[in-house]
Amino acid sequence: MKTFLTIWFGQLISRIGTSMTRFALLIWAYGQTGSATSVAMLGFAAFLPMILISPVAGVWIDRLDRRKVLIFSDLGAGLMTVAMLALAATNNLQLWHLYLAEALAGIFEAFQMPAYSAVMSTLLPAEQYGRANGLRSLADFGSQILAPALGGLCLTLIGLSGVMTLDVLTFLVAVGTLLLVRIPAVNTEETAAAPVTFRQDMRVGFRVIWSHKGLLTLVGISTLIHFLAALTWMSIMPAMILARTGQNELALASVQSAIGIGGVLGAVVMSVWGGPRRKIHGFLVGVALSFLLGDIPLAVGRSLPIWIVAGGMGAFFIPILGSSRETIWQTKIPQALQGRVFSVRHMLINSFMPLGYLLGGILADQVLEPGMAANGAMAPHLGWLVGTGPGTGMALMFVMSAVSAVVICFAAYLFPAVRHVEDDTLPAVPTAVQATAVPAD
Q: How many domains does the chain fold into?
């Protein structure tokens, strides 16, 4: 636990710096274009390369020292920020530079996220997974509390270059903590199996997931939920708040800080509680409550206090649902396979997120925003629900995505493979990978 907490602290500091930079760059990008599409495309640029590189990343995570994988992914992200800093300091920063930087960040994340999950299950006993995943969420949302306020303040006092300089320093903290710790190697079973090629290794994650109907269905549900989240919450929410408040950056910072506070509270609860005994309930019910209590009030509300409460309520359940789902996977998958399986899972559940980011911006700018304008074709029919004028088309998207997510979660209970995913035994590991499988306890 001491080693895990050391790594966790470094990642927390790094995430604060990264979130500050992303907040500052989001404000800069929207100020340059005034377009929701330009903001949504930042997410698209990050997720597409991450999806493509994930199967390759998974093989290296299982073959290499996972601590070194984390170090190099953090260093890569830090060097990328240095390059952006140089462009900003010389007044040469352009919008396409942000897209390139997000693409590189997605590649580094393809290595960092699965390696982090695999390291956690190496360091901790299974009964601590829920609490540890809660701490991971605490780092994610804790940075969201501090980043908008600090990012906005630093943007005013020291400018965009100053914000990115602080970000580089936080990367150094993350790398420093990783250099201080040692992570036990994963024990593998030596067998007489034939040597495994890189291509065979890449297929392992797919084969393991495909062989377990419950995990495969869980991937399908997660993919749909992530798509809906990318369509609205993760892509156009900042643009919607800015549009409905006349470009009020303080209002956006307030909502994002509320999201961070709600997420921190949920993470604290999860860290102390560990989640429900049946983690599948924590995931499905948590998703439904997040959309019901977060997205819908955020859409139909017409004042900043309502948006602040809705953002906090929606975020409160994210650590619970995310930690519950992560615990299921960490418990089911042998440690020596986790890099490959987690990378493929990461790729699959995020595979439609680039489309969500792309559609979110296009639907907002080209269809729903014009339709919900004061004289728009849709305003007479749906104006009673979300109002009319700037931002209301995006609000309507939030309503539609929230209703879809709730229906998906309740429909999932109709499938026995989902209800019993924690009880069903993982089928035998494919022969081609038996040489790296961890023996059953």
A: 1
